Amino acid sequence: MAVKKVLKYGEKTLREKSKEVHKVSRKITDLVQDLLDTMYAKNGVGLAAPQIGTNLRVFVIDVSTNEEPLNPLVFINPKIIKKSGAIVSEEGCLSFPEAYTKVKRYKNVMVKALDIHGRSFVTEAKDGSLLARAIQHENDHLDGILFVDHCANRFETEQILEKYNLPPLETDKLLEEPELEKNLDDN
Ligand code: ZN
């Protein structure tokens, strides 16, 4: 397959809601291969289909480090079925080259999805691990939500976007997350 162009913040496709996959057909397995090829080529930890211009509910993640063998994870029609705790940590996104900012996330998530063979699986990621955060980040892309919408410090994020010549924060997209805020206070 091929390394695709990654859409940058400001492109309308990134804000659209993606459609469910009805059948894990050849078209979908090709899409998954493009996502993996592109993610590895750009040294990303995750990549969602809308980022390469396809509004379908598919994303890939690989949180293995340099010393470890590749461990591609494929999520088709994912649903986060459990979430708890809260953590603030720095994130980036291939659609926001070089820009990193602190965002609010759940610490623990349980996700149900289909794998590349169309089989249902459930996976759990805990303790604010890279995997836990990546699942939430990539899953958001399928609903047109971007990591900056979860930013912990609006003014700092504004400055970072400006520094890297990215469009300003879309303040109407900023998320109100009372449950997350409450969990952060309880920490
Ligand atoms: Zn992203």
Describe this structure in words.
With 187 residues, this protein is α+β, with helices and mostly antiparallel strands. The mean pLDDT is 96. The chain has helices spanning 26-41, 130-141, 154-163, 178-186; strands at residues 46-48, 58-61, 73-84, 87-91, 101-105, 108-114, 120-125. The protein has one domain (12-186): Peptide deformylase (Peptide Deformylase, Alpha-Beta Complex), CATH 3.90.45.10. The longest helix is centred in the N-terminal third of the chain and has 16 residues, at 26-41. It has 4 helices and 7 strands. The strands form 2 sheets. Strands 1-2-3-6-7 form a 5-stranded antiparallel sheet, sandwiched between helices. Strands 4-5 form a two-stranded antiparallel ribbon. 25% of the residues lie in helices and 22% in strands. The structure holds zinc ion. Zinc ion is lined by residues 93, 95, 137, 141.
